[in-house]
Design a protein that fits this description.
The protein has 137 residues and is of the alpha+beta class. The protein has 2 helices and 6 strands, in the order H-H-E-E-E-E-E-E. It has a 6-stranded antiparallel barrel with strand order 1-2-5-4-3-6.
Length: 137
């Protein structure tokens, strides 16, 4: 009898937990579209219409646990440790800032930055996001 009661309680508990509302799954923000050499050149040219000395590169690797990102395809002349970099996502065709960063070090033609997520950013930096350094006035 005791086993029957225990089995009934266990069965009812499983039924109730199976009927409980499932947590709502939020869709992940969209991944960046592949950034071709041509699209990077076009984005760079558009930004240079506003700021002739802006530097624009491509995020090529991200270490999320260390908040590090590697940047390539950017003119690195004159950059120094702690210079400021903005990481920008292209979301629905719009440039959306997602993180602020500072130069950690330069390895050959690769700029390594330490980033901090901006409040309200939909996602962290990803491969093919943009790195932007405004020209110095």
């Amino acid at each position: 009898m005791r086993a029957f009661v225990l089995a009934a309680v266990l069965f009812i508990g499983l039924v109730i937990s199976g009927c409980a509302a499932k947590p709502k799954m939020e869709p992940l923000p969209p991944a960046p579209p592949p950034l071709t050499t041509e699209s990077l050149s076009s984005l760079r040219a558009n930004m240079q219409k506003v700021d002739a000395r802006v530097r624009v590169g491509r995020v090529t690797a991200v270490r999320v646990g260390e908040s590090l990102a590697a940047i390539e395809d950017m003119n690195l002349d004159g950059l120094h440790e702690r210079d400021i970099v903005s990481l920008v996502a292209i979301v629905d065709g719009q440039e959306t800032p997602i993180a602020g960063a500072s130069v950690k070090h330069i390895e050959g033609k690769i700029l390594v930055v330490k980033y901090t997520m901006l409040p309200g950013a939909l996602r962290g930096p990803a491969v093919d996001d943009l790195a932007v350094i405004p020209g110095k006035k």
